[in-house]
Fold these 4 entries.
Entry 1:
Amino acid sequence: MRRLADRILRPRLHSSATIWAVLVLLVAGVVVVVPEFVLPANLSNVLIQLVPLGLASLGQHFVIIGGGIDLSIGPQISLITIAVSSLAGTSALSILATILLCLALGASFGLANGVLAHFVGIPPLVVTLCTGFIFQGIAFAFHETTGGFVPMGMREALTASWGLLSMPLLLYVVCLLVSAFLMYRARFGRSLYALGGNEEVLYSAGVKVSRVRIASYVYAGLMAGITAIYLAARLKSGGSHYGDGYSLTTITSVVVGGTSIAGGEGSLFGTVAGTIIVSMLNNVLNNVSFRYGFQSSFYKDVMTGLILIGAMLFYRNRR
């Protein structure tokens, strides 16, 4: 306990203890301003709402830790939701085949990003911005808004809820555990930290840098695929706008969680806390807008941008 208190009061740069302490204080403040926030029904809603952002942020975390960035996550999600709603049939075999195909699509999108980022010599920000335009354009070509159909069996399986416990939350926990294993127990995770910290270390150790960098983007694409499958089931269709905003909000969750935007430093569990903060503030803004009658959607982008700038300034000033 004393060690934990010391880490909170005198935190290291990019320490996840700091963001968890901020989260506790923020929750306390939110309860004072919006007492209904802690009602079981609202808490269940918050936990479910954070799942898609949480899933996508896990993939973004891997990319940023490795010194990259992925601005195409949102368009990937939009395109894959359309694939889900267009291909899924009513039989169990059709649903399973569609899920596997969509996961493969996400991984292939990530593979394309990784190959371009490593071998073409274009900065990852530019590469993924360009591929994001491509994915978004293809999504618009299929459906300008929403369309398709997600079978009821798939919807019920992926959105089942039992009070505070739900299938989406279980899905997030499983993906988090897998991500934690890859990051902290597998050689891939150690190589990824080294890639973001000092690429020359990997070269001198004989590790193939291309494999590590490409694998981080493949994992981000895979998580985008999982996010899209869940979103399609939750929203009962596919949509060219379903992924709007996820590219920025995933970066915000990762950076707010204490991960260096330059890579090599940060904690996966800090990203979890950052995800909770971003999702919680969105929920609070919705509650406040309902209470006072103003349109919260006009302010969410402003809030996200301010949080991202504030987080980067905070960690920069502690160097």
Entry 2:
Amino acid sequence: MAHNHGHSADDPAIRTRALEDLLVEKGLVSTDALDAVVQAYEQDIGPMNGARVVARAWTDPAYRERLLSDGTAAVAEMGYSGAQGAEIVVLENTPQVHNIVVCTLCSCYPWPVLGLPPAWYKSYAYRSRVVREPRAVLAEFGLELPADVEAKVWDSTSDIRYMVLPLRPPHTEGLDADALAGLVTRDSMIGVGLVAGPPAAAD
């Protein structure tokens, strides 16, 4: 599917950047404060929506089936939707297949469930390399896939945004959905990381 890559003066990203520059220039806000807010939405506030979706899928088999068959509708059940969501397709990781999400031509991203895209996701290095050498890129994130696990890369578009349903870690059978959501990371829902079990499980 074709991407829409036009960037006019009406582009929200351009207008947002201009507003940021003006606020900093006027001394109304510092760049550190802006960076802290962006980091919160990138790593905590935004991805928690997706983490709750994942946790529900792990604990509710009927919801998991709905999520995999119609991600947009299932995510909307949780109250997460918006113009940036487009159609959300959820990709299930299995012991045999590991999914990774990218947008090779720009930075299409499922904002309603993952918040703001991290800087590395938008970088040319990630966008160009993960399709050609996914295992090497994953290794740079600290994820070494076993040789018998297939790495599948999915290219998001302006019409379809992908989200990964990561594997549920072992030793989490007694955890409720809230506790499970606390384990899920943004990177695991993009596919460049795994979900680690609770600290006690490592003992």
Entry 3:
Amino acid sequence: MLLIPIVALKLASTGWRMLRYYLRGEEYVRRGPSHLVLRVLVAPVIVVSTVVLLATGVALLALGQTHGTLVGLHKASFLVWLGGAALHVLPRVANLPSILRRRLPGTPLRLGLVGASLVCGVLLATRTLPAADRLQDNLSGSVGFDER
């Protein structure tokens, strides 16, 4: 639950960059497109698996389920997401130090948006903690951890 606002901000900012590129925004066109494989294959897999992962997680929490098809879909979407995220992140690791040293315009706005999404995530996680605790208790009891 903590990650939902943060991921929503990331999807929105990435969608904005993609839209600006395809609408021929000058600064976005100057930077050029990302690698074709990342645009056509990896990005859609990451976006779809992220949405499915978070949606099934929310559904599991809302329904209080610890077994069944929805749990399997949640686990499978995580594995797909992990593979896509690895393909997306690992090629960029070597460039990370130079990326972090860059001074980008709009940094205060970006930090403010990230901070606000983090606060929203903390509030959402705090509000749903009782439901998550009940779900964890149900799961622990079903595998014999809470036997007395």
Entry 4:
Amino acid sequence: MNSLAQLTIDAHGGLERWKEFETVSAHLVQGGVLWQVKGVAGYLDATNVTVGLRREWASHSPFGSAGRNSKFEPERVAIEAADGTILGVLPMPRRSFAGHTLQTQWTDMQLAYFAGCAMWTYLNTPFLLAWPNVVCEELSPWKENGEVWRRLSVHYPDSIVTHSPKQTLYIDERGLLKRHDYDVEIAGGTPGAHYADGYVDVSGIKFPTRRRIFARQANASVNRDPLVVSIDLSSIQLR
């Protein structure tokens, strides 16, 4: 494994400890302008998410209103009632975003896909670096706010559904993730810079509890107005 990838995984608790668990869940409080732009304001302001650690799946509850849950998998999303009744299904959901721009509004199903894909990626990072066929390369260091961060270019295989195949992780001297860059392909390739801090230790694994996402410029600088997405996590549990 790439040495910086190994350092980062170890700093977040280590792969062997991570392998002891099957899922991670958290309570989310979310904000930012994205939800209004996409026509889904209020759906996920306060919700709970559970994601898989062995395969790619996620569920938000409640989803939109009490008694509704989302179920995300790469090739299928669904919305279910609390009793398990299926309220809607969208097979091959990524295809439904063809031609979308940042301003294109989302359906309930498309929101379920985006939110599931995003939170699965965030809560599994950096341990995804150890998944088969993930390729990492260290880039030149990056200076920001008086700090120097090491950078890791990550290329994900087609078997992993995420924002974009190529992403960049910014790592501090302790090995903790500080920033995560990607292009949101399903929103017209919109470039994002995702900051992570407020780390807590949960069963030996470190998670950032404060996430802020902004627009990224071509030179990797960041436009901090507006705040695109905010995510505050609490009640994190590994099982």
